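#lab-general

N.A. 3:47 PM
ok so I finally got the sequence cleaned up, no stray characters, all 357 residues accounted for. can someone with queue access submit it? mine expired

B.Y. 3:52 PM
send it over

N.A. 3:53 PM
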Amino acid sequence: MSQKHRFASVAYAFLLALLLLSLPQSAQAGDKLRKLKEDAVRIQKGTLLVAPILPDSFVLRKFDHAGGEAKRAAYLESIRISNVNLQQALQKHYRFSKMQVMPAVADYPAYFAALKQYDPAKFFLLQFGQAAQYATGRAVKASNFDKEFLGVYELDGQTRIYLNQGKLKLFPKLAYAESIAKTLNTSLDRYARPAKSKKSSAPALLAPSLAGKVALLPRENLFGNDSLTFLNNKYQTVVTTLPVKMYRAFGGIAMPGGSFVSPDTIRDTAATRRDLAIELAWGNTLEFEAVINVPVATKINIGIAGPQASLPGGGEQVIMPFRWNLDWIERIYSLRSKQSWSLAEFRVAYPQYFPTK
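B.Y. 4:20 PM
back already:
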């Protein structure tokens, strides 16, 4: 064999070896991408639990030993501001049907105690910052593959979305937190979106929690400026194909039979006022919640609540038919006393909410 042919054979063998070595890595990357798409769908169907950014125990220990009380206080304050910015950004940009933001905690023990109250099989944990890796009581170091595709990986039965911002590079500015949350939401939504069908090009529902319960109709014109209450003036006209529960927050001058409702129950009045952008000046005190059973074949208009003045909106909003049947109300709850009434009982207790013509 000539030297030229010998060199060509060695080069060929070398390239073949490189190809074989790269195959497992490519397969691993493909598996990771498929896992991400599966998890993105699961996250949209489940509850997304947002863990706060935690103080770094090593940094706190350093302050304790060095006697840096002022620096320690400033460090904890920066984390508090970062958690506030993170919560605001997620509430504004996330479009998943269910999301809970855990309260910020002082240190790891309190965080572990708060985490135990959640069923790992029913929630997905969103963690920001390297200090939040200690959710299981020990450090969890993510590999390069774990950090790819936004780092969605499963650990101890919990799906975690890991976005490494470093131990001290947190979210001191709301704009920075918003850009991170917006990018994460867009990417996961893209992964969770089903593959396009050649037979159907139906648009996605603007109120995802109603998927499988309504069918799209040609969009109708809304009364007055009602269309402006939706984000970017985007809404859809649909008809219910299954019975659907809706919830209406009312009180003050707002009546139980008002047109604006939501498929999301009230977590707390502040969150509802923010998510549905209900201005205080409108006179709705959000004192009561009406649970409404909307029957099959009811035409409604759905979308995302747009911002109003200082309120960001972002919750799923539904406009009911004009003068819908009040008998659809199953129960009415007081958000203050937790007392509940049937519709007939509430009529007697609060006749001012049922004015006569």
